[in-house]
Amino acid sequence: MLRAARTRLLVIVLGALVALAAGPAATGAAAKSSRLSITALSGRADLVSGGDALVAIGGVRSTRGLEVKAAGKDQTSAFSAGADGTVVGLISGLPLGRSSVVARRSRRAAKLVVTNHPIGGPVFSGPQLLPWTCQPTARDAQCNEPATFSYLYKSSDPAKQGLQPYDPAGPPPDVAMTTTDRGVTVPFVVRLETGYLDRDQYRIATLFQPGKPWTATAPQDQFNHKLLITHGAGCGVQHHPAGAPSVTAGAAETALASGFATMSHALDNAGHNCNVASEAEALVMTKEYLTERYGTLRYTIGTGCSGGSLAQQWIANAYPGVYQGILPTCSFPDAWGTATQFLDYHLTLAYLDTPSRWGAGVAWTPEQMAAVQGHISVQNARISDAAQFHVVVPTDRCGGVTDQERYDPARNPGGVRCTIQDAAINLFGPRRASSWAAQEKAIGRGFAGAPTDNVGVQYGLGALRSGKINPAQFVDLNAKIGGLSLVDGGIVPERLVADRPALANAYRSGLINETNNLDRTAIIDCRGPDEGLFHDAYRAFAVRARLDREHGHHRNQLIWEGPVSLIADRQCERNSFLAMDRWLAAVEADKGHGTPAQKVARDKPADLTDRCYDGSGGKVSDALCPSVVHVYGTPRTVAGDAITTDNNKCRLKPLNREDYGSGRFTDAQWAQLQAIFPDGVCDFSKRGVDQRPTVAWQTYQDSRGRVIYGGRPMPPPPRSRPLDD
After folding, report:
1. Which of 90, 143, 441, 524 could form a disulfide linkage to 576, CB 3.0–4.6 angstroms apart?
2. DSSP 350
3. Angstrom distance (rounded) from CA 180 to CA 224
4. DSSP states along 657-693
5. What is the pLDDT of residues 361-370, one digit of tens each?
């Protein structure tokens, strides 16, 4: 009975994957002509890593008379036919670079060109971060080492919270049972695999029956062929491997009980690696590895808070298809649209917190400072500045880099700059020689460009218009705000000018998340109040506003609010996970015509809407609760920016005295403003300079592994072609 259920599920999954990869027309043609076809089931055929790939042979229903060769070596014995006649096998021993998989039966043949990359990477993120200090147990310079396995279990004793250590040789007497969403009841025992790929740690967990076999073509019955990916927090850079996020706690435990696999990779802990391309690469590689050893996947859900929400949302937009649904909490749309807020906080605090910088007759109350920040207090700015600003300071320390290796503008200008922009130089590109500082000239190369800018920004404009600050304060603030130095991260009198082409590349790469591809992914955002912990509630609505701008709707995004700080409700992650599973199951069952984006929108269950919760799992209403979750602004929205907050460098318009009302400024103050803004002030009614859509699925390396600064789009995924006589 269980074996039959598993076989039926495998038939559904493999049939869907083969049809998706081949396309409707190709599938129909193959059925009519019985031509052979070869489909990579574990990922794109040109993004293979580790020397193996799970493939299906179409046009046959058994292995009788079939011959399969990979890179010229016979791999026929790796293939077998399922109950439905689907022929699948794990090919291995692929050489690095391009090679061919050829299937033959009688006079029919097909060929699929695959491209294999090292298991230590890179695959498409470009030359890797250096220096890189591997873990002590590494077997080589790419940090590879054999995977290890451990076991956990859920206790039937409610006093034992979470999963407990489990010894298969001496099972404890209190193992709970669980019934998956496929109706399979098994002991709640979990196997945890820990290993290394792409130079960093991954984790994979599944319900597991010790002593029983598991292969990709014959997984254990309790596996439902679904995946939950967990993520870390923060935004930073380190130059060594780190522990992958937990895959057994919170929503992951709920997912495991249902039959999901759970997975994480250290490079998707944004506090360890805040680079959309290398984050996506790590997930693509780990999903490929999982598929080749555990079985094909029906759909994938992501979950995570803060930097974990950032990773989900910009990966889903820049590399659509990595997830089918995401569950961001304490949301950030991206790092580099948000960077303007952190830049503005740093600059305004340096002025507001230093009374000696205030002009004669100018004084600031706490309420006026908050009005400039767009918040109820300056606390939010101070916490934000302390928590995150250091990641763009080139002299900052980072793990894996010694003080002797680290950049110093005077003593070591060629040293390692521990900034998130320099760690993403493949995406931004280096600064143009015409902009080089003395340090760059000395070493003969440019630092990574930065896409942040405050030219033309009128700080405190909204507070001025509302009468919360006076003209003298407005003029003094804007005269003394200054900008940042890329040499040492210090404040300088001149405003900051965004580097080009880094600005355009930030949009193209998805480092600034334009959401133009995000409508293909279902989103449930758990959003609690933030009265000063820098995880501002407006960011969930920034994503919504960007979706509305790009697609005319936000039918793929729900926001669930509640009173628990940052996370909305203590049960929100669990409840949103269960809801997302229903949503994606409905999308999966939709066999009608339509794009993935159309199906995500039309197949959302009717009972899933925006919601307000009571903090303990109880639904209060099918609507948002703005009296509970307050949405504040930023210094840039006070200056006139929209809630989309992705206009990193504004277009300018002439300074016009009439825009401020008659008699607001004295002639002397107006002359000062003309000197402050000689080229004009921000016109936020227009799209920003170099603002453009994110280009999906970019690579940052050529076929020889050399960097492509700014990236280029990958070609369509390779498809097999017939070699019939």
Report:
1. 524
2. H
3. 8
4. GGGG-TT-S-HHHHHHHHHH-TT-EE-TTSPPTT--P
5. 999 999 999 9
